Amino acid sequence: MTIALKGTLVIVGAGKMGGALLEGWLKGGAAPSRIVAFDPAPPPEVQALIARHGIRLNPEARTIADAEVIVVAVKPQLMEEALPTIVPMGRARPLILSVAAGKTIASFERHFGSDAAVIRTIPNTTAAVGRGITAMARNAHVSDAQMKLAETLLAAVGEVVEVENEGLIDAATAVSGSGPAYVFYLTECLAAAGEKAGLPAALAMKLARATVSGAGELMRASGIEAATLRQNVTSPKGTTYAALQVLMAENGMAPLFEKAVAAAAARSRELAN
């Protein structure tokens, strides 16, 4: 990944996600002189990163006349307060790249104009360790070159996929955006079940954490379908088979996940309105 910028790359919100992106861009060769960060109080580690590379922090927005991309990474509840302060940079016709949950493309068009180039994305928390996946949707004003640049910027924290239309962002939010929490809870449940089976609590959690993270890495590294991997470790009438008879029963995990994902997608649509 090589990040070549013609203008200024602006990051609005330098918290955990913004900081992870910033670190990834710098590792990808983006020139610090081309980056500007806006955040009233970055976390200490991000503040140190900004200072170490000499990145401009909180300059007057009107002084940025060549904004090429504005990456919006502020919390949704702070969006309406933050956006008006950066609108002056819109005169350069930058790409607006949102990594904020629950904010529609239309909400950015209201601030930057109906003809603004806007990409809405939903990253996830595993971006913090470079293993994230980001789904994105664009409006009709985003050029192919801008789309390619957005993919390069987002690839700094993991994989990138494009969905056909913005409506699918809610489903992507329910699967990948919220998904890490489901996996963390699965780990909690697995550890708790191991404890009930007689294992010491600390050992049960250690086994559960290593199992979940190892299984995820095996899926990633092998590229083999999850169903095939499951079948490969399930001996006929063995211990795994016995457990899967419970988990794959009519009232097992599948219907629970269907309900959970549907609930998350519905909530995503509510928050966007």
Would you write up a description of this structure?
With 273 residues, this protein is of the alpha/beta class. The protein folds into two domains: 8-169, NAD(P)-binding Rossmann-like Domain (Rossmann fold), CATH 3.40.50.720; 177-272, Orthogonal Bundle (ProC C-terminal domain-like fold). The protein is built from eleven helices and eight strands. It has helices at residues 16-27, 44-53, 79-86, 105-112, 144-154, 169-177, 179-196, 201-222, 226-232, 239-247, 253-272, and strands at residues 8-12, 35-38, 56-57, 67-72, 95-98, 117-122, 132-138, 158-162. Helix 5 (144-154) links the parallel strand 7 and strand 8 (158-162). Helix 6 packs across helix 11 and helix 7 crosses helix 8. The two termini are 36 Å apart.
Please describe the topology of this protein.
Layout: E1 8-12, H1 16-27, E2 35-38, H2 44-53, E3 56-57, E4 67-72, H3 79-86, E5 95-98, H4 105-112, E6 117-122, E7 132-138, H5 144-154, E8 158-162, H6 169-177, H7 179-196, H8 201-222, H9 226-232, H10 239-247, H11 253-272
Helix pairs in contact: 6-11, 7-8
